[in-house]
Amino acid sequence: MTELELHALLGHPDWAAVDVLAEPAGGPDGVPVRDVVTVADFRAEVTAARAALVAVALSGDREDWHLDALLRRAAAGGAAAVLLPGKDPLRLASRLLAERVGLTVLGTPDPLAAAMAATRLLRESDQVVAALVATTASVCSATGGGVDELVAALAQAWRRPVWLLDGHGDRLAGPEPGPTDRRALLTRPVQTGRRPTTLAAAVPPGVPAELAAVRAALGVAAGAVGQRLAENRLAVERDARLRMSLLAELLQAEPDAGTRRRALDAGWQLDGWHVGIRVDVPDTVDPLVMRPEVLRAFEAAHLHALVVEQGRGWSAWTTFAEEPSAAQLHAHATAARRAQWLLRSTLPSAMGVGRLYRDATGLARTLGEAGDAARLAATRSAAGYFVHVDRLGLGQLLLAWTRTDTFLPAARSLLEPLRDQPGDLLATLTAYLDAESSLTEAAAVLGVHRNTVATRVAKAQELLGVELTDPDERLALHLACRSVLFHS
Predict the structure, then answer these.
(1) Which of 14, 440, 456, 473 has a CA between 20 and 30 Å from the CA of residue 74?
(2) Strand 386-388 relative to strand 350-358: parallel, antiparallel, unpaired?
């Protein structure tokens, strides 16, 4: 025998206008509804009410003693609930009576419509399924735009939250922050030929017809979503090929008039001053698919740069119309380091930043330096897998000496007081010195608040008995930290 759960019925979109006026101590949970009985008014006799929803068609005075008599008859007959016209509250005596006899009392402006909806869900499940499938097919064919627009249209048609999820269950489309109760989800894989995606709708159990209808509708909608994803992928790939081809031409030789025109059409400014950025990722990462992650990280870090898929990662650059000041370059480096920290939270990336160069030939040169720096950054975990070429040079030669056997014992002895101290003082001090004593940059690399960095650095100074304002002590300490971390 088909039955509904009363609490699930209360959550159904067709019952959005139904309120609970009184309920037993345990509420409507676990109360089955197997039938719908409609009576004229409060004076009606209630027969065959076992596990039934008793719907009263005509409104009456809530003070009428016949209402209490109806509630008693419904409870004695084993009714699941009584549905009254209107949402006016019950008088106290009626509410206490309903609680005492274990009966749920509901109210709605249109009890007949609510009763018909419940009857349809109980007895006409095939029609419920067919109607929603037909509606879904119509929505899929009539809705324009991309995947976001289609998912939103499905949610409106189904009157339930709908999401597109990636292989990890994270939201790709649909309302933020994404589904919170995975047990209430119906899902259907979307065939895209690329990374796994799933179309999901929030449908709590308890209404079998609704579950069957949404499950069938998901099958129809998943095909349409997959087609939109494929079309979007083709468009993205076409744009990416144009970007990569144009960048390759710029890097190979002095651009001719045609190349300059295509760059202008693409919004690329070749004249001016450029700072190159390179982000490398493992072979398992698809640069085309993950490009939005890079764009989001750059935007969040206020790093304004063009991003192009290239090889195992992305080449990017920032263009300044006028030669930037030292403060502007420092701000750019800080933003790049912040972007790398954000990227590392989702991608195993390494970032390199080149020096400032001018015009189209300078763009090729700074991107080349950024690529070299990114390869070096892949080995520098203590620096947050980030290397800025302006901070290399003589320091790299000194670092090579610090990796000899004669320097290492002295370095370990110097830093021994930091060993086993809470807060990882060695890593904090190294990041702070790598960031040229910038609390903000060190905090970005470590993923902590700048006040935490300040406290840890002060503690390290106290334990080591050094003064970081002294250039010689700061250099010696920096070299010691790099040597110990390299051999740890």
Answers:
(1) 14
(2) parallel
